[in-house]
Structures are given as structure tokens and as C-alpha cells.
Amino acid sequence: MFTGIVRELGTVTAVAAGPEGGGLRLELDAPGTSAAAALGDSVAIDGCCLTVVANATGRLAFDAVPETLARTTLGRLEAGDRVNLEPALRAGEPVGGHYVQGHVDGLGTVGSLEPEGEGEGARLTVEAPAELLRYCGEKGSIAVHGVSLTIAALEPDGFAVALVPHTLAATTLGTLAPGAPVNLEVDVLAKYVERLLEARIEA
């Protein structure tokens, strides 16, 4: 379980074939996350939960299987890319964002990233598939590339979120270009509500 609060920006140092056919081994320079991580721990990389398979000298390694590569942006990563990192939530830690599972529901596409207001914030618009938009509501929560955000507005084919200066500085969202794919995870509570309503209707 995660909360969508990015703890560190990691840097991809290597992408190679994984031990399983069709998978990838990702190696990241992430000294902060590495210092507290053990083998087998879960870490969200751009919102996708992966397991630490090696940890040495500030560098972490993860194996991404074909299913993960097909459903996320991780297969597009190259050496030098920056990624949002969040270790799994530990008992007693505050939930600063919202409940995030690290299970990417689908991919969105950046529509625009524009300065907003008189401050240093920005407005990010994302095009999203209809099967994900059904779970989105104005002022509801969504994770974009692992970052917990509040939906500021809904459009027929996507949504908009407001990014405060801290988010722009502490995550990769401020570097997104129009057309870039992003990992999306909708609020799991919305999915549970839908399932409960379906069960009531079927009964």
C-alpha cells in the first residue's frame, strides 16, 4: 500500500533483459530509498509496485515482468530517465495522499502542461480512456505516475489537475510533454463502491 507521496526522484542507470523471458531488469540510483530498503520490499516506481531484488551502494534493482511492461510505461524507460519513487507505507505512518495500491489501471496521455495563476503552479490535463474516467469525479483522487492528485475538472475525454510548486519540484510531473504517456491508478474506493452497487442490483 502507498499514498501517492513521492519520497525521492530516482535515476535509471541500466535497463537490461530480466531473468525471465520477455521481462526487464531495472537498476536505479536511489540513495535515499536504498538506505531503508531490504530485499523483497515493495517500492512504487512511477506508480507501479515492484519488488527490490538487489540493493547495493545506493542502487536498487527490480524485475518487471511482461504483464507489467504491457500495462505501464516502465518498458519505455532508458538510462538517465528520472522516476518517482515511494516506499511502501509502514504501520503508523501518516497517509498524506490517498490509498494507492501501486496497481496501474491504465495509461493516459498528457494533453497540456501550462502555468496557472500568478504563482509558480501549473495545470496538467490528461486524456484518459472511458473505462477509467467512469471512476473519476471532480475533487476526487487519482494517481498520475504515482503522484496523489485531486481532480480539478473533468472533460469528456480526460481530466485536469492543479500542480503546486512543491509537486513540480519533487516529482517528474513538471517535465511532462504533450503526448507523453502516464501511468494512472484510479481511487480504489470508487471501484469498491461500483462493485457493491452491482451486487445490490444483481440481488
Note down, in words, how this protein is organized.
With 203 residues, this protein is an alpha+beta fold. It has helices spanning 31-36, 66-71, 130-133, 165-170, 188-202, and strands spanning 8-17, 24-29, 42-45, 48-56, 59-64, 82-87, 106-116, 121-127, 141-144, 147-155, 158-163, 181-186. It has a 6-stranded antiparallel barrel. Strands 7-8-11-10-9-12 form a 6-stranded antiparallel barrel. The mean pLDDT is 92.
Spell out the key features of this protein.
single chain; 203 residues; alpha+beta; six-stranded antiparallel barrel; six-stranded antiparallel beta barrel; 12 strands
Largest sheet: 6 strands, antiparallel, barrel
Look at the structure and give the mean pLDDT. 92
- Helix tally equals 5
Shape: globular
How far the N terminus sits from the C terminus, by CA atoms, comes to: 32 Å
Helical/strand content category: alpha+beta
**Content of β-strand:** 35-45%
Low-confidence stretches: none
